Amino acid sequence: MNDDWSPRTRAIAAGRPDGPGEPLNTPIVPASTFLAGGERAYSREDGTPTWAALEEAVGALEGGHATAFASGIATAAAVFDLVPLGAEVALPTFSYAGTRGLADHAERAGRLRVRRIEPADTGAWIAAAGTADVLWLESPTNPTLDLVDLRAVLDAAAGRARVVVDNTFATPLGQRPLSLGADVVVHSATKLIGGHSDLLLGLTVTADAALAGQLRDARIRSGATPGALEAWLALRGLRTLPVRYAEQSRTAARLADLLPEHPAVTRVRYPGLGTMLAFELADAEAADRLCGALRLIRHATSLGGVESLVERRAALAGDAHVPPGLIRFSVGLEDPDDLWHDLRQALDQNA
Ligand SMILES: *Cc1c(COP(=O)(O)O)cnc(C)c1O
Known about the structure:
By secondary structure, the protein is α/β, with parallel strands linked by helices.
């Protein structure tokens, strides 16, 4: 890997075999065990060539050592597994519901103390950097697209709390938190890295080799290992992440400009970059009507694929605090004009 190469080039070039006669792409290796005497013995402990290729490519993009897990949430479980009993974890009041649910559960069980901080309350994050053991940051947040001032919080936390950044929404194309001083980046590769809504997978990335070893050990203990096909598909998806991210972001910015002009839309949340946006209608009924009236954009949970998806998040138990008329919109690769026409005809039914 050449240090000068841009992210777009790294996404193509990293994680490939390079010996004469080897396949250009690392194959799917569905092995639990390997013949004795080599570098790998058992895949849960030693990994597989397929996982290693994906880990090398994601590591090259984020700037650290990557470890692949069975899902995004398994990465959060691994991070929490490393902290001592009674440790304090600070996390956003409103962010991905699964991570908050994991922290809530550990708190109820008496394993962790949890402090909840508004994403934009930089002063509270800076104060927590001096007392908490772990700061768990997510920016932009899922599903309300709030931002944490990563630079300010990471500067304040240097040498103090361990800082983890969930980079699922921004991807390494939008921001590289390790370069700003984060200790660990986590991804749900189920979303943008995979990019095709056909797999579950997560990754941790850290520049600290000892911490990378601890995260790998947490994977061995939990057994939260990725499948061979999933790892292969995630790397295949990663190859096109830069172009998908650029194009889907362009479309998202355009739709974020058009949406406020429609009388049925009361608010648009778009941080100015990225493929995700959210918009609000008057109430839950209007939002449900919109989801039912769309013809091209599909109504489904999850995000980050080539297909545009919408969901009314307040309908889900973990996100009941979200404004009732808020629609999370994962912008795909369809023609932007077709997306806008579909949105407009569905919105017109609410105007
Ligand atoms: C989906 C998601 C996760 C969890 O990932 P899974 O692959 O579903 O386990 C974590 N963080 C964010 C921001 C997500 O959107």
